[in-house]
Amino acid sequence: MADSANQRCVVFVGNLPFHASEEEVTKKCEEVGPVVSFRLMRDKETGKRKGYGFFEYRDEETATSAIQNLNGEDLGGRKLRVNFADNDKN
Fold this sequence. Notes:
Layout: H1 4-7, E1 10-14, H2 22-29, E2 35-42, E3 49-57, H3 60-70, E4 74-75, E5 78-79, E6 81-84
Antiparallel strand pairs: 1-3, 1-6, 2-3, 4-5
C-alpha cells in the first residue's frame, strides 16, 4: 500500500465472526467484485483472530461498492463494519 491510489482500493472489514472461515469472509466480500488480496488480523502471541481484516479490490469503484453494499450486512449473526482502510484521511 505504498501510494494513496492503492490505499483507496483497500477496505477495512470489522466485526467479523470469530468462527467464520477465511473462505466464508472472502466469499462475502467477493459479492461486490474480485478480491485481489485479504489479510485477516490475528493476535501475535495467541494466533487468535482479532475480528477484523483488510481486503484489496482492483479499483476504487469496487472498494466503494463494497462499503456501500456490505456495511451492515449480516455474516454469521454479526453486522459487518466496512470502510476505507485509510479512514483517517476521509
